[in-house]
Specification:
The strands form two sheets. The protein has a six-stranded parallel beta sheet, sandwiched between helices. A three-stranded antiparallel beta sheet has the order 7-8-9, with helices on one face. Helix 7 crosses helix 8 and helix 10 runs antiparallel to helix 11. It is an alpha/beta fold and 284 residues long. It is globular. It binds adenosine monophosphate. Adenosine monophosphate (AMP) binds next to helix 2 and strand 5.
Length: 284
């Protein structure tokens, strides 16, 4: 039987007992509204650990837009059924006050340099501060052996890797490939909010990323970026927030193809009022 806990201390006590017996713990943090992408992380954790823990928590402090937070899909009952069927051992699903009993925390005590200033960091101020605070809290509560993060949120993964390394946290961060729909659209909880017409147009983002990968190295970076922005903007209802080609670790935008094997293309696009992100590694 899968456990469903909402209390930090019960979760910590329960897992401590099992850790003392030497069991390895895999951890998959999520905001719920689960799909195959999340389950892929759960399955990987199950293969690599004796116990798998999944958190479901829509973290208010990582939303810089109140409407986005209000509209974020919440499907807890369905999520727990999916996790039970996937063989997850424990779901931790706290209320906001359980995570932030003193009210909303302000600033995570770590300087991320450029990592939280470009792309998502630039357009969603405070987002990664909120992500870092909640993930560090989860790590303290669960004390996982390994934690699983999707490359779909590539910049988030870079932030978490940096945090784990810099603070020397005793957890191994495991990057997982982006899971896509049959037509290539990156799976996302936000896809649920697209109309059928928008859903059919949405694959244009990945198609453009694939074309960028085809042309990478042949066309100057600046021209390729401009081409991609134009291509996405031509799709009905799409508004590009940013399109960037950057180094996979430092996230510094690249200007030429000198270190091309490190290049990743990133897109953030509004389709109606739904914000979608995707990325592709250009040479691997
Ligand atoms: P979220 O619930 O959106 O916060 O995502 C929870 C975790 O699942 C994060 O590590 C995401 O990067 C990961 N994830 C979300 N969508 C996908 C996907 N399509 N493929 C792989 N991982 C994903």
């Amino acid at each position: 039987m899968m456990k469903l806990f909402t209390s930090k201390s019960i979760t910590t006590d329960y897992l401590n007992c099992l850790k003392e017996k030497g069991l390895t713990i895999g951890f998959v943090p999520t905001m719920g509204a689960l799909h195959e992408g999340h389950l892929d992380l759960v399955n990987r954790s199950k293969r690599e650990n004796e116990l798998t823990v999944c958190s479901i928590f829509v973290n208010p402090i990582q939303f810089n837009n109140a409407e986005d937070l209000a509209k974020y899909p919440r499907t807890l009952e369905r999520d727990t059924m999916m996790l039970e069927a996937a063989g997850c051992d424990l779901v931790f699903s706290p209320e906001t006050a359980e995570m932030y009993p003193q009210g909303e925390p302000v600033k995570f005590n770590l300087e991320f340099g450029l990592l939280d200033k470009v792309m998502e960091g630039k357009f969603r101020p405070g987002h990664f501060n909120g992500v870092a605070i909640v993930v560090k809290k989860f790590f303290d509560i669960i004390q996982p052996t390994r934690a699983y993060f999707g490359k779909k949120d590539f910049q988030q993964l870079a932030i978490i890797k940096f945090m784990a390394e810099t603070l020397e946290l005793p957890v191994k961060i495991i990057p997982c490939e982006t899971v896509r729909e049959a037509d290539g659209l990156a799976m996302s909880s936000r896809n649920m909010r697209l109309t059928i017409a928008e859903r059919n147009l949405a694959l244009g983002i990945y198609q453009t990323l694939l074309k960028v990968r085809e042309q990478a190295g042949n066309i100057p970076v600046r021209e390729l970026k401009a081409w991609a922005i134009k291509k996405i903007q031509e799709i009905r209802g799409m508004q590009v927030e940013y399109f960037e080609i950057a180094d996979k670790d430092s996230l510094v935008p690249i200007k030429d193809w000198n270190n091309k094997e490190r290049a990743v293309a990133f897109a953030a696009v509004f389709l109606g009022d739904v914000r979608l992100i995707d990325n592709i590694e250009l040479f691997s």
